[in-house]
Amino acid sequence: MLKFYSTLFFFVFLLPFSSFTQELKCDVQVNAQKVRDVNQQVFKTLQKSVSQFMNNRSWTDDQFKTEERIECSMLINITGQKSEGTYKANVTIQSSRPVYNSGYNTVILNYVDKDWVFDYQQHQSIQFTKNTYVSNLSSMLSYWAYMIIGLDYDSFSKKGGTPFYNKAQNIVNNVPSNLSESEAPGWKPFESDKNRYWFVENMLNSKFSQMRNVYYEYHRKGLDLMYEDVKKGRGNIFNALKSMEKLAKDYPNNMLIQLFFQAKYDELIGIFSEAPQSKKAAAVQLLYRVDPDHANEYSQMLKK
Predict the structure, then answer these.
(1) Rounded (10°) CA dihedral 32, 33, 37, 40
(2) Handedness of CA 77, 198, 99, 107 (dihedral sign)
(3) Residue finishing a domain among 184, 204, 224
(4) pTM beyond cutoff 0.85
(5) What are 94's strand-pairing partners?
(6) Is residue 7 domain-resident?
(7) DSSP string, 160-200
(8) Residues 155-164: pLDDT tens digits?
(9) Contacts of 198 (CB under 8 A, 6+ apart)
(10) Whole-angstrom Cα distance, residue 228 to residue 230?
(11) For residue range 154-205, what is the model confidence (pLDDT) as tens digits?
(12) Is there a single domain that holds both residue 192 and residue 236?
């Protein structure tokens, strides 16, 4: 009888927690067509190892239900082999989040990281230790896990992603300074003005804090409101874009601004194409100013 009650207690104790899971739902694909002289099975195990690393680890102290997992993807395009077991790659990282009361997912991040160099042996497990550099592959994956989570949290609460950007920045700081650019590119400020170093630096830099507010206003006060009040939701999105105007003028080539519109320009066309003509025209003029890179695409709205 005692054994029965012990088993019952164990089951009941676990039941409330059984619906909770890890934070990321990351689809990982590895394309190694350009590398002909390596056993392709190596890249199949790499794909599995990366998927397990991203999806089976708890990245936060928060509890996520299965349906709350952050949807993201990593397409690892192997571009060459530097030496045996050392590979170069560019990686497309995307993440999205659901819009309230809809079946629609909005893209939050759409970025190609061209600075991947890493070592990998078949069936090698990928290890991660907080506050310690283990390998370039582990650091890059962990960095992007925290950046994806940070962006997601920013979209639900004002600057909610700060703890995760701090963790991503800690990963940057832990990369050994004696590693050369050819060994571990993307971590140092002098290598480029648009790399992993600058992405998280800008996110935590008070000079660009308005961009953090935009993520919240655009998603929580804009898209999430459109189910019950399209006009108000669209208006809040317009105001969020308007709040970027000075930043876009002062820092026209800023990485955060460019990444935001790379993820959003197509969605913005859909949002404002359905607006009254006067609001549509005002939105197009505003978008010309804050996102000139997609001016041709925005101009098509005026023809609809």
Answers:
(1) 50
(2) negative
(3) 204
(4) yes
(5) 73, 110
(6) no
(7) TTHHHHHHHHHHHHHS-TTS-TTTSTTSSTTT-SSSHHHHH
(8) 999 999 999 9
(9) 189, 192, 255
(10) 7
(11) 999 999 999 999 999 999 999 999 998 889 999 999 999 999 999 999 999 9
(12) no
